[in-house]
Structures are given as C-alpha cells and as structure tokens.
Amino acid sequence: MTVYRIKSKSRSWDGEPIGILILDAAYPCVPGNVGNATTFPFPVRYKEVRGASITRLLNERDPALLAPFIDGAKELEAEGVRAITGACGFMALFQPQVAAAVHVPVFLSSMLQVPFIARTLQPEQQVGIITANAACLTEEHFVNVGITPEISKVVYGMEEQEEFRTSVLEEKGTLDSELIEKEVVSVAERMVRECPKVGAILLECSDLPPYAAAVHEATGLPVFDFITMIRHVHSALVPTRYSGHM
C-alpha cells in the first residue's frame, strides 16, 4: 500500500517539482524557451519577479532586485516546488543569496554548468559562452556560479545581432525565430573560428535553447543551455525507477 501525505496545508495541488523565476518582460517565448511551458516533458511552475526588467537586471545590475527575487523563491517553495531555477543567466547576480534564503536547491543561472563542462575538456580547451549581452557579464556573475579564474572561457554576445537585440533586449513585441537561429549560429561559427580551442558551448540566455540543435549541427560541439540544466535537476528530483532483474 502506498500512503501519500500532504507537504503543506497552504496548497491543494502537487506534481510541479521545478519552480522557475522569470523576468518581468514581454516578448514571444517560442517552444524551447525556458519561458514556454511546452518546452518541458514535465510540469513546471512559474513565478514572475515583478519589476525585474531586462534593463534593471542586465544593464543596471540593480541590487534592489534581490528582495523580490528572494520573495519569489520563497513563494515557489511555499507552493511546493522541490527546486528553483531561473529564466535568465544573469540571475547569477543573486545565486548565493537566493540559495541561502530557501530550503530547496537553487539553480538560477545556466552558467552553473560551466565548471562541470570545463572539467570534461582537455586542459588546453575552453568553454565558449554565448550570452545575451557580453558587455553586461561581470566577474561577479562568474564568481557567483563557481567560474573561477583558472577555468578557461571565451564570451561572445548577441547584443549586436539585429533581430535578437530588438526582439529580446528591446522587447519590440515580435520575434522572428528563424532569423534569430541564423544569428546565433553565425555567432557560434565565428567563435569557434576565432577561438579554435573551444571544446564545448554554453548558451547563457534562456531565449537561446530553441537554437541549440542548430548550433550543434553547425559546430559539431556539445551544446549546454538552461534546458540541459533543468532536465538534469528534474532527473535528480524524480529519479527513474528501474524494474526487472538480470
């Protein structure tokens, strides 16, 4: 007999192991984007961090955003999720503080995978990071997710790509997915051409996973992103039960 018990009297639902903190932004989230629930083969629960605009998080690195990030994480925890992830790699800015504020694992930035990726490569190889805006990534972001100075990396940005910039960074209201795919593939090809020691690619931005397959096909390299991280976390929260005997 299987006995089920409630985890909290504050809710009357179950089955959403992953909670996702999402920015206060407005642009189309296509399938494959962290902000599109159809991306995942399991239920997820979203929590918009009110006031956390792209400008305040990326350009201004506004420390006043810490409080609403912590509040959002605590709300997700109270609603029953068993791990909290983010929907923007720049949420690395608050990774240590949010992780300390709740009692479930926190994975705010896709860049948490970089130390793991680096240790799978040959000593002379580099991790290639493709980010929404290279100019906005700082040493603080890297340190907060464990990317120490000895980890060799190169960073290329999407901020000069017209469709990505106007659709995502400037939120014009429309998004040409095929054009963005061409843009990110172009950036990836330029990166591996200019930096031949790149042995794997990490897509920092939560808007880029829809194009991971195209980047892999163009470069032949392993491609990591928010979805590889979230699927990994989910597999730890909901392990497969194997049946049968040898």
The assigned structural class equals alpha/beta
Query: Radius of gyration in whole Å, from Cα?
Result: 18 Å
**What is the highest CATH level, the class of the largest domain?**
Alpha Beta
**Total count of domains:** 2
Shape: globular
The fold-level CATH name of the largest domain is: Rossmann fold
What is the overall number of helices? 9
Instruction: Estimate what percentage of residues fall within beta strands.
Output: 5-15%
Average pLDDT score:
94
Largest sheet: 4 strands, parallel
Helix content: 25-40%
Order of helices and strands: EEHHEHEHEHEHHEHEH
Head-to-tail CA distance between termini: 26 Å
What's the total count of β strands?
Answer: 8
The unreliable regions are: none
Secondary structure layout:
Elements (H helix, E strand, L loop, with lengths): L17 E5 L21 E5 L5 H6 L6 H13 L4 E4 L8 H7 L4 E2 L6 H5 L7 E6 L7 H6 L8 E5 L4 H8 L7 H18 L3 E6 L8 H8 L3 E2 L1 H12 L9
Parallel strand pairs: 1-2, 1-3, 3-4, 5-6, 5-7, 7-8
Helix pairs in contact: 7-8
Write up what this structure looks like.
With 246 residues, the chain is of the alpha/beta class. It has two domains: 18-109 and 230-237, 3-Layer(aba) Sandwich (Rossmann fold); 111-225, 3-Layer(aba) Sandwich (Rossmann fold), CATH 3.40.50. The chain has helices at 54-59, 66-78, 95-101, 114-118, 139-144, 162-169, 177-194, 212-219, 226-237, and strands spanning 18-22, 44-48, 83-86, 106-107, 126-131, 153-157, 198-203, 223-224. A four-stranded parallel β-sheet has the order 2-1-3-4, sandwiched between helices. A four-stranded parallel β-sheet has the order 6-5-7-8. Helix 7 (177-194) runs parallel beside helix 8. The longest helix is centred in the C-terminal third of the chain and has 18 residues, at 177-194.
